[in-house]
Amino acid sequence: ARSECVFEETNAQTDEATAAQMIALLGLCGSFPGEAEASLEASAAAAFPAEVRLHAFIKVLAVWGYYRQSHTLRACAQVALNQILDYCLVDLGSPARAELLRLILGHVSSELGPALLVERAMLYLRCLQRVALHPAARRWASAEHPQVSFFRSEIPLLLLSFSKHFSTRLPVLALLLPVVNRICWLCVDHWSTAEAGGQRPSPTSVFGALQVEALFGGVYLRSLGLAVPPLLAAPDAPSEASELLELLLESLCDLLQPELVRALWLSFDGDWRRPPLVEQVVARVVELLGAASGTERPLPPHLAQLSSAVLARVVAAFVGTDSVVQQGRSRQTEANGCDLDSVRLQWRQREAVCDLMAKIEENPKKARAAFDKSGLSDITPLPSLGGLAEGEDGSEEWARKLIWMLRCQNHVIPYAAVGEFFGQPKDDSEKAIAAFVDTFDWGAADIEQALRGFLEVFLLPKEAQQIDRVLKTF
């Protein structure tokens, strides 16, 4: 692995014992030194930098792909991959080990796509499972260090990509969903613990909440939407749809532990700025039960039982006779400053946001007038202008508040309608776009390319000249 010539080629005649030794040596190259040789860390980092260890990791992947018929060698390759991953996770505080894990995840991301073989996708998911279930994962996922980004950025984004490309492949989902559950538990555990202690949410804990929102919406809600219609559409629904729904419901039952349900309800359903995740899950399950009961082909008994179990999990999180549980729940509610009256107020505010977005979708040209009449301006925070130099004039207050709404309420935004509002040749539209741009921290980005990307998100350039006209303004 070091010289890029050792074991460069393999062939079918290679003895299994020799190939197993080759895999073991590659695993050693990627994971040396172990805990017993901690004193050699500095010299090993110089002799085996992250790029060389990544090369060993890729070599093991190549051997795994070559020996398709040998379960023994594939098992040896999986052990070697786990060995390299364990080397990273034992001490993610080490820059060299963190860099190696970042390179490995980057390599997985570069191969992930529609053309990726299912067996290769399952191998990568086993690697992600190793990372997520490692004993040290909880410590690194709750640390206020850059390493936390692995569990709240890189890994969740990979999981979303797997769900996008393999959303109906049962073997892949069977490995994907437990990893999704683990990442959700790690994120919720961190931010709910911090809030229960009376601490203000940190940027990383809020980022973790965003990842939970993305995983729920991009994996569970999306997959449920794909599994339910085929099951109800035809009398002879394919067995794959039934098996997929069974897998999703079983995984939801595993995910919805009482503490997690309460944390989700307080952090999402009880906050008008976020989507009501628990409500959406319950609505999907109730819709499934209701739609099936009105058809000639009722839901299979085991699916009806699993659906009821999901609903029971949610209800049981809020119904308990144990006084200790009740006291703990009261302390958590007090720490979050949340009671039923304030939650009802949050719900009314969320309804006002949904009404506003519906009016914008109905008449995009009058987005500002709809915002002024909604009454949301009084409760919308005034965001800072991260992209402006000191002393530079900012945008008008209404525009900044409307843009905050469009940046944070992404779960209800009618993007095409907002794009039509941005594309109007009117002062209000120009001020709104300017306020949006003021919030950007450009860093070293290509401003024109970034602005084009921003406009394309809102489907603005239905006519090519619109985007060029907007760019001329800046």
Automatic annotation (TrEMBL):
Residues 349-474 form the SEC7 domain. GO terms for biological process: regulation of ARF protein signal transduction. PANTHER family: GUANYL-NUCLEOTIDE EXCHANGE FACTOR. This is SEC7 domain-containing protein. Transmembrane segments: none annotated. One of its GO terms (molecular function) is guanyl-nucleotide exchange factor activity. It holds the Pfam family Sec7. InterPro entries: Sec7_C_sf, Sec7_dom, Sec7_dom_sf. Gene3D superfamilies: Arf Nucleotide-binding Site Opener,domain 2.
